[in-house]
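Hey team,

Filing this mostly as a record. A colleague (T.K.) asked me to run one chain through the structure pipeline before their review meeting, and I want the input and output archived in the tracker in case anyone asks later how it was produced. No errors, nothing strange. Just documentation.

Input sequence:
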Amino acid sequence: MTPVEVVERQLAAYNARDLDRFVAEYSDTVTVCRLPAAEPAIVGKIRFAEFYATQRFNLPLLHAEIVNRIVMGNKVIDHERITGVQPAPFEMVVIYEVDNQLIQRVWALGPA
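Output structure:
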């Protein structure tokens, strides 16, 4: 499975708000950084799943659309438009690092 296929699978699960299928695409030691912060905001699959269960997948209108994508080796860089979280859609850049067919690290840059 290519890095793009892994990221596409997690995107489909995100849009379906299928937590089990979504977190299955991430490593047990996943780290998420919210740029410009250098320190991870989330470390580990358990905390990652808790965040998405309570802060995203409980939102009935949640949806992510890919505006643009760049692939560099094992990194997939998505420009995403997110709806259903705030009153108005917002855009983010998310970098997914894939190794061993799992997302290991995520860097997210979005609205302040």
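Quick notes for T.K.: The domain at 3-109 is CATH 3.10.450.50 (Nuclear Transport Factor 2; Chain: A,). Helices lie at 3-16, 19-23, 45-55.
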